[in-house]
Structure formats: structure tokens, C-alpha cells
Recover the amino acids of this structure.
């Protein structure tokens, strides 16, 4: 299936095109024949438009000018400990600013795709499916949950909320966990990880592809978009290290309680994705396949230079 074989091409805006998921959204949208324009806030890349969602009127006016059919919002204040310290900014960036642009999209009759998290759960008994009752522990999780609810209330079937977690893979800024791990281990340093945090590693290119396919199909409501395995952080780190030819013995696990992280974390977290699995079985790669793809993409001459090398 592609936009050229049966799916009507649409006009898309990607707020946060300079980020991990946003970068892949732009690539997938272009590959599938859609017209897409992306934005950056502080890290410019060629072709991206400067947009700060906190300048609400200006940002909404720009979105209106694009006449999009779909607005993707893989943006916000994503630093969980920072959100705990600065709740005002956390709510502005993760709730009020996306809602402002969702309203602008709705006025145009466009759809809005928001990215949420398993931090909407308390992690007492995960992994969770879409029917599980949320109970966030952190400011980040609370703001994300309020955004989910506000979008459903205000946009109804025009809103799609994709919850994901532990997103990793090749990206232009090289910020995600796999890059941090590679930098630490290749310097011969130990990497300390929480031994008791469990979640669903999710491969960035797959998360983006799923979001685009869901938008093409006009799907709405809440959907979990995650990799198929639920693992603890130490296992995840060691599997990345092994795949990248780095020393997994440099990874040490310690309990979350000893880490002094600013925000409380869900421990037995992670997401189940029955809706996505039924809709498009096999869309999300296994962790091993994702890690193999990660390396292949970094070597791909067409992508090399666009993606941050891992080492
Ligand atoms: N990564 C994960 O593991 C994970 C897990 C669950 C949910 N999510 C959600 O998925 C979404 C995307 O995550 P990600 O990992 O791709 O994030 P990311 O790599 O940190 O990218 C965030 C994007 O937001 C942009 N941005 C920041 N402040 C902005 C502002 N004031 N106005 C407009 N844009 C702004 C950034 O632009 P600049 O970089 O140019 O400043 C960047 O393009 C987020 O909503 C996040 O909460 C992520």
C-alpha cells in the first residue's frame, strides 16, 4: 500500500520535525507520496520551518496558512525530570500548546495526531492495554494524560493519540538512549541503569510508519504504538550494546530508589498494543530486527549524512 496505490495523498504538518519521531515522520510521509512540511524549535535542519509552539497565535496562524489535512505533533517538553521541576512549562508544552494547534487544525477540518506515553500509568501492574485505567505519577505523565483527554473531548474523531515508550533508533540529533549508551560505553565508561524499570522499547522508524499508516486510514482515538517486547532497562541496554559491538558488562543495574531521579517513574510499565496488532500485524519489528535495521540504516549511503553516526 502506498499513497500512489489507492491512498489519497494528503498535506501534512509535522510540529517537531527536527526531533526523533518527527524526523522519521517527515521521511515516511515523503516516501509515501504525501506533501509534508516540518518545523524545528532550536535545532534547524534544511527544509524545516522555525516554529515555537509557545508563541501560540503565531504558531496557530502558520499552521492555518499550510492548509494541512493532518497535523502531527511529536513535540513538547519531553524531559521527565525537567517537567517535575517546572510544572508550568510542562503543562504549557505538553497540554496547552498542542491543544492550541489542535484547535487551529480542527477549524480547518484537519486531523491531529498526538504522541503520548506509558507514563500515564503508575507502573504497579503493567504492561497496559488501551483499556487500562491511567494513573500518572509524574507531572509529565499528568500533563500528557490531560492532553489525551482534552483532545478526545474537543476533537473527537479528528484526534488520534499514539502512546509509545522508550523510543530508540537512528536520528538526526543523536539524543536517544542508544546514542547516550554508545557514547558512554565507547569511552570505556560504565553506564548505570535502573534495574527495576520495565517498559516497551519502540523503534522510531516503526513508530513513525505506524502513525502515518493510521493517519492514512483515518483512524482515531487512542492506540498503543510500541515494540512487541517488554523488558527491563538493563536488558534493553545490554541488547543495544551487544548489537553495536560494545561491552555489555559496562552496564550496571541499580534500583530506581538509589538513582535520585527527579520524577517518580512507573516501574512495571510498558504497553500492550492489541489494537495495532489486530489492525496491522507485524508492523513493529522485534527488538533484534530493529537493532539490525538501526545499523543498516546508519550504513545506508542514502541516509548516511542525514543521521547522526552512532559512534
Ligand atoms: N522518546 C520517547 O521515548 C517517547 C516516549 C513516549 C512518548 N514520547 C512522545 O513522543 C513525542 C516525540 O518524542 P521524541 O523522542 O521524538 O522527542 P524529541 O526528539 O525530543 O523531539 C521533540 C521535538 O519537539 C520540538 N520542540 C521542542 N520545544 C518546542 C516548542 N516550544 N515548539 C515547537 N516545537 C518544539 C523539538 O525541536 P528542537 O529539537 O528543534 O528544539 C523537537 O523537534 C513527544 O511528545 C514525547 O512526549 C516519546
Amino acid at each position: 500500500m502506498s499513497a500512489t496505490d489507492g491512498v489519497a495523498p494528503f498535506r501534512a504538518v509535522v510540529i517537531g520535525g527536527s526531533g526523533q519521531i518527527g524526523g522519521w515522520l517527515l521521511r515516511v510521509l515523503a516516501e509515501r507520496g504525501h506533501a509534508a512540511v516540518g518545523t524545528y524549535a532550536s535545532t534547524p535542519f534544511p527544509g524545516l520551518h522555525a516554529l515555537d509552539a509557545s508563541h501560540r497565535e503565531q504558531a496557530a496562524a502558520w499552521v492555518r496558512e499550510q492548509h494541512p489535512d493532518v497535523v502531527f505533533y511529536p513535540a513538547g517538553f519531553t524531559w521527565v525530570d525537567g517537567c517535575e521541576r517546572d510544572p508550568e512549562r510542562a503543562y504549557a508544552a505538553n497540554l496547552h500548546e498542542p491543544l492550541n494547534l489542535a484547535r487551529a487544525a480542527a477549524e480547518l477540518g484537519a486531523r491531529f495526531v498526538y504522541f503520548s506515553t506509558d507514563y500515564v500509568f503508575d507502573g504497579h501492574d503493567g504492561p497496559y492495554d488501551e483499556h487500562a485505567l491511567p494513573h500518572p505519577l509524574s507531572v509529565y505523565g499528568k500533563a500528557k494524560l490531560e492532553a489525551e483527554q482534552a483532545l478526545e473531548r474537543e476533537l473527537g474523531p479528528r484526534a488520534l493519540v499514539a502512546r509509545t515508550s522508550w523510543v530508540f533508533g537512528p536520528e538526526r540529533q543523536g539524543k536517544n538512549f542508544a546514542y547516550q549508551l554508545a557514547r558512554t560505553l565507547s569511552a570505556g565508561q560504565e553506564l548505570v541503569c535502573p534495574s527495576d524499570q520495565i517498559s516497551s522499547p519502540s523503534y522510531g522508524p516503526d513508530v513513525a510508519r505506524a502513525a502515518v499508516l493510521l493517519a492514512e486510514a483515518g483512524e482515531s482515538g487512542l492506540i498503543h504504538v510500541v515494540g512487541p517486547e517488554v523488558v527491563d532497562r538493563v536488558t534493553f541496554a545490554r541488547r543495544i550494546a551487544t548489537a553495536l559491538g560494545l561491552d555489555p558488562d559496562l552496564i550496571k543495574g541499580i534500583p530506581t530508589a538509589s538513582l535520585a531521579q527527579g520524577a517518580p517513574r512507573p516501574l512495571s510499565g510498558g504497553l500492550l498494543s492489541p489494537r495495532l496488532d489486530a489492525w496491522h500485524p507485524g508492523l513493529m519489528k522485534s527488538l533484534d530486527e530493529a537493532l539490525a535495521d538501526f545499523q543498516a540504516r546508519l550504513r545506508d549511503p542514502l541516509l548516511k549524512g542525514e543521521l547522526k553516526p552512532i559512534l
Remarks:
- Residues 11-174+201-229+270-286 form a domain with the Rossmann fold fold (CATH 3.40.50.720).
- The two ends are 35 Å apart (CA to CA).
- The chain has ten helices and 13 strands.
